[in-house]
Amino acid sequence: MSEAADEALQIPVAIVGGGPVGLMLALLLDRHGVRTVLFNTEETTRWHPKGSSQGARTMEYYRQLGIAAKVRALGPPADHRPT
After folding, report:
1. Residue 2 C-alpha from the chain's centroid
2. Positive or negative, the Cα torsion across 73, 27, 60, 46?
3. For residues 13 and 37, is the Cβ–Cβ distance under 8 A?
4. Is the pTM of the predicted complex or chain greater than 0.85?
5. Which of 15, 28, 56, 80 is most buried, judging by how many CB atoms fall within 10 Å of its CB?
6. Range of the domain at 16
């Protein structure tokens, strides 16, 4: 067995899927000191996102991770009203 494969077996959490939920889980676990390995079928990020907005609960997690302001800056203006 290769050294990389042996090291991967020592990681306690495997996450399958690099979508929003898998990536958020990996970030939150990392914040708590839990090592993870993430498996994804896509080689890179999507050209077009699957989601169009973030809910209040999701923004709470973004605040915990310290990325809420950056996420909000990528979204529609504050005075935007969805139709």
Report:
1. 28
2. positive
3. yes
4. no
5. 15
6. 3-44+51-74
Tell me, yes or no, whether 79 lies in a domain: no
Q: With a cut of 70, say whether residue 52 has pLDDT above it.
A: no
Within a domain: 11: yes
Query: Is residue 30 assigned to a domain?
Result: yes
- Phi first, then psi: give them for residue 43, nearest 5 degrees: -80, -25
Residue of higher predicted confidence among 55 and 16: 16
The domain total for the chain is 1
Sequence letter at residue 47:
W
What residues form DSSP beta bridges with 16? 39
Element (H, E) at 39: strand 36-39
pLDDT higher than threshold 80 for residue 65: yes
Distances (CA, A) of 29 to 33, 34, 53: 6, 5, 24
